[in-house]
Amino acid sequence: MATEQNEQAQDLEQAEQQTQNETEQAEVTVEGLQEQITKLEESLKLEKARTANAVYEAQKSVERIQREAEKHKDTVLEKFAKELLDSVDNLERAIAAANEEESPVVEGVKLTLKSLLSTLEKFGVVEADTANGFNADLHQAVGIDPNAKANQIGAVLQKGYTLNNRLLRPAMVMVGA
């Protein structure tokens, strides 16, 4: 019986040790899992930050490309409009040369000029104001008109135009002294 009791005591001790070992392994496993969860959460935060940064950069790139496209469009429109102004000037000279003679050709030139000017206005090209006195931002003084008052425009030699409120071509004017 003593042997049986010793064996039972040893079995109990072994069972306790095994339970302790399993508990320690379980604790180590739980601690390890908690550490792994913490590392994964940190990794997730890092990846979220990288993703947010990539989305931000993509949005900024799209905005930059849109700004550049608008600027390019404005530049192309400006160059095109400047070239058309020569045609406007030529049509106005043709009408002036007709000396108020009414013929089908003169009428056709007037209609062509009217159509061209209305098309230019649709795209923001308008004649620069010369009625409200000299403005160095809109007019280029090329001479002095003795009959005009000081800082007033006496004669317009060539019309000026603006494109979307920006100067496209200054009006060449004679100014009073």
Give the CATH H-level superfamily of the domain at 124-177: Head domain of nucleotide exchange factor GrpE
How many strands appear in the DSSP assignment? 6
Helix content: 55-70%
Which architecture of the domain at 124-177 would the CATH scheme give at its second level?
Roll
Briefly note the structural class of the backbone: alpha+beta
Characterization of this structure:
- With 177 residues, the chain is of the alpha+beta class.
- The chain has a domain at 124-177: Nucleotide Exchange Factor Grpe, Chain A, domain 2, CATH 2.30.22.10.
- Helices cover 65% and strands 15% of the residues.
- The protein is built from two helices and six strands.
- A three-stranded antiparallel β-sheet has the order 1-4-5. A three-stranded mixed β-sheet has the order 2-6-3, with no helix packed on it.
- Helix 1 runs antiparallel to helix 2 (104-122).
- The N and C termini lie far apart (137 Å).
- Its main location: cytoplasm.
- Residues 1-30 are annotated as: Disordered.
- Keywords: Chaperone, Cytoplasm, Stress response.
List the helices and strands and how they pair.
Elements: H1 2-97, H2 104-122, E1 125-127, E2 139-144, E3 153-158, E4 161-163, E5 166-169, E6 171-175
Parallel strand pairs: 2-6
Antiparallel strand pairs: 1-4, 3-6, 4-5
InterPro entries: GrpE, GrpE_CC, GrpE_head
GO molecular function, one term: protein homodimerization activity
GO cellular component, one term: cytosol
